[in-house]
Amino acid sequence: MRYFRYPLNEFSASDKKFELTIGGSFFSLDEMRLNLMHGGDPVTARMNFKDIYPWPVKLLSPGVMGWYAFVPRMECYHGILSMDHSIEGFIEADGIRTDLKGGRGYIEKDWGTSMPSSWIWMQTNHFDQEGISLSGSIAKIPWLGSYFTGYIFGFLYEKKLYRFTTYSGAKVTELDVTRDNIHIRLESKAYILDIDADRSEGVELPAPRLGEMTAKVKESLHSSINVTLLRKKGSCMEHIYSGTGRNSGLEFVGEIAELIKGLKK
User: Fold this and answer.
1) What is the C-alpha separation between 248 and 71, in angstroms, rounded?
2) Residue range 35-76, pLDDT digits in tens
3) For 218, phi and psi rounded to 5 degrees?
4) Partners of 78 in the beta sheet?
5) Is the pTM of this model over 0.85?
6) pLDDT of residue 146
7) Does residue 81 lie in a domain region?
8) Where are the alpha helices (DSSP H) in the chain?
9) Residues ≥6 apart with Cβ < 8 Å to 66
10) For the chain, what percent of residues have pLDDT higher than 70?
11) Is residue 199 part of a domain?
12) Is 100 in a helix, a strand, or coil?
């Protein structure tokens, strides 16, 4: 893995929209320009993003965290800028250029001082048809001297975002983690989202701890996630979608017992 450090004076960000510059690289909702140097080997990329699908923003629910976004001094804040979009461009590393035309993209952001002590995170938008995307996380949230387990899941299908979140009243009714699999079932008043994620080997990524990039997180980008969405109809269930997301991002850090205990609070 290649990790690039920059002095603070080489970072700048807009306070009005998602645009930031780090060294010679630029990131926004519309494009990414990557200019890195690893020894004598440059890593470059040029990407344009189209048909962005953001998580809805409302006055009292400004994004994926809902009203929790207004709570000061949380250790980690989370935002989803695009559940799914198209990509055109390329990335070049080790002298090999890869054409990204026809690819699918996803953009999220995190900020704060530390990642949670326990969490699950997953994302995929490589299903059997374009426009389908899953993003979800379950995490230990410190709260008033104790903690609870919070969760944010969104499933985009046929241009509709099905949301299962702590603040919307949805419930995690099943949660299990084994060496090879993560199983989660979420229920809202009207829908059920059933998830089975196959775990695969990941790589260690630097992560924040108390404001410093000293923690390590294992993340895989080669997992597969089976998703089923059902609609409740009285005592029956109506099947909406079943499919498998490929090239999935998947993380599990900490203790499953800690997450399950926090769900009962």
Assistant:
1) 31
2) 998 777 899 999 999 999 999 998 889 999 999 999 999 999
3) -90, 125
4) 110
5) yes
6) 93
7) yes
8) 256-263
9) 165, 166, 167, 168
10) 100
11) yes
12) coil
What is the tally of structural domains in the chain? 1
- Give domain status of residue 19, yes or no: no
Residue reference for tokens 């995490």:
139
The enclosing H or E element of 152 equals: strand 146-157
Nearest-angstrom CA–CA distance, 196 and 218? 19
Bridge partner list, 36:
43
Are 8 and 213 contacting, i.e. CB atoms less than 8 angstroms apart?
no
CA distance 89 to 51: 15
Residue 162, helix vs strand vs coil: strand
Phi, psi values for residue 52, rounded to 5°:
-60, 135
Structure-token pair, residue 174: 């099943």
Q: Give the 3-state secondary structure of residue 211.
A: coil
pLDDT band at 188 (very low <50, low <70, confident <90, very high): very high
Name the residue range of residue 141's domain: 54-86+108-263
| The pLDDT of residue 211 | 87
Q: How far apart are CA 112 and CA 122, in angstroms?
A: 20
Residue with tokens 């690893």, as numbered in its chain: 38
Q: Which pLDDT does position 27 carry in this prediction?
A: 98
CB contact at 8 A, 44 and 36: yes
* CATH number of the domain enclosing 139: 2.40.370
